[in-house]
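Below is a complete specimen:
___
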Amino acid sequence: MSLRPMGLPPVPEQTVRVARAAFPQGSLAIRVRDRLGEVFTDEPFAEAFGVRGAPGLSPGMLSLVTVLQFAENLTDRQAAAMAIRAIDWKYALGLELTDTGFDHSVLPRFRARLVGNGMERVVFDRLLEYCVDAGLVAAGGKQRTDSTHVVSAVRDLNRLELAGESVRAALEALSVAAPDWLARAVDVPEFAHRYGPRVDSWKLPGSKVKRDQLSQVYGQDALRLCRAVWSPDAPAWLREIGAVDIMRQVLVQTCTVRTSSRGKEVVSKREADEDGVPPGHLRLASPYDTDARWSAKGDDLFWLGYKVHLTESCDNTPPEAEAEAEAEAEVRGRPNLITDVTTTLSTVPDVKATAPIQQQLADRGLPPAEHYLDSGYPSAELIETARSRGTVMVTPVLLDRSAQAKSHAGYDKSAFRIDWKARRVRCPQGNTSTGWHPVRQRERDAIVVEFAKTDCQACPVRPECTSARRGNRMLTLYPEHLHTVLAAARAEQKTKTWKDKYALRAGVEGTINQALDITGIRRARYRGLPKVRLQHAFSATAINVVRLDAHWTEHPLDRSRTSNLTRLSYRLTA
């Protein structure tokens, strides 16, 4: 397939007349074509297409279809049908009224081409460039970030189901890739009886003994198949089949192979307490989505999938929710727009996403002067680094997590006086530390301060200071410059001025709700991290298009479709 850059074709006259008559007030699709047509061009996609072969559909047109698809939360079939029967979509795409459109299978092939060439964010970036040029978003303002969970597009499997389904997936792949070899390597009728239907299509045994026996059977079958594939007389390319390698990994993480006292090989279920299991960020959860991971947030949320971080501008959101008239006037002046979307594995903590988000904003020329985040994002190093680059992180830092600070009794770190030049610490009772040890903890520089056992054991307030068995108090400190940053941040966040200022961050919750309502952002449409990133990039683009349309029409929401409370929420966040 080749590309001949043309962009969106001109709208035929008949389509214009009918669309204007059918939509005298316009529609989202019509206004997107009239105002944002220059965003959906073919040139940015040139590297993803060849120069030979039959010309394919315009990637600019397909990207517009995808944005409209996400703006209306449609499936591929529904989006392809809209290109045929919806007059405003025909206007947006520049099609004749009699045009028969395209097959829905074009859309997944287009997305696969974007993912294969690393172009997941092209349309999102181009729309932001348009907004920057139009003065709708700029560097140096206020931005806020928050994350939410994303449920994967695959079924949740327990460890037993995972073991069986991984064998089944490998057998399915080998049945297509090397049927003759598979017929010689295993007893096909026996395996077909066991792995023909999906593992989740029949009820698993109820007793633990029978489940352990079934787990052993799955492990023996996987081990047998692995040995056949890795045998010297097997074709080497069989080992490169993805499903086969996944089966091997699942076998390692779910089973153990031992030799009994009688010299017999025994395959048994891997027990977490005795045999250990891989850490969560490496542990496979499905043979059909190797990027999905189990994760938890608090005691109530436990999901299999990913995590998405949304960052939006918020210069025009008033700090007081009751300033309704001011909010309406400012929203019309400049809408709040999503400036970054970052998708990670569900096991990646928010603090690991802070630096990449801020770097991506800087790369787009949109670094904020103030960045509002919740307590999961900051660290002393990140606060200092951001400040050196001109960004103030308005975020509550974690407080002292020592037992004394948590109980609000006794002496926490703030009760000790630190002399950085003399490298000594004085406790509240006037005793001076006897040890100052620079160390590396969790890949970070730290300082461990130790007090003499003789001083601590004789201290009259020792129960209020330490309960350590070793008998003396020890402190772990950041290096001086980071300790100062952290202490200043902890002191500032206790003031009413800071709390009133930080209230601005809450608006990003409304943005996540809007993304959920419009695009279903909390449920992955596709499998694999690259495709989920593409989904979220187009979701963010769709949200920006909806917000721009609200800005153009000065009518954020249809009153008949939403409650007054929801309208107020969206007006304050959009």
Observations:
- Residues 318-331 have pLDDT under 50 and may be disordered.
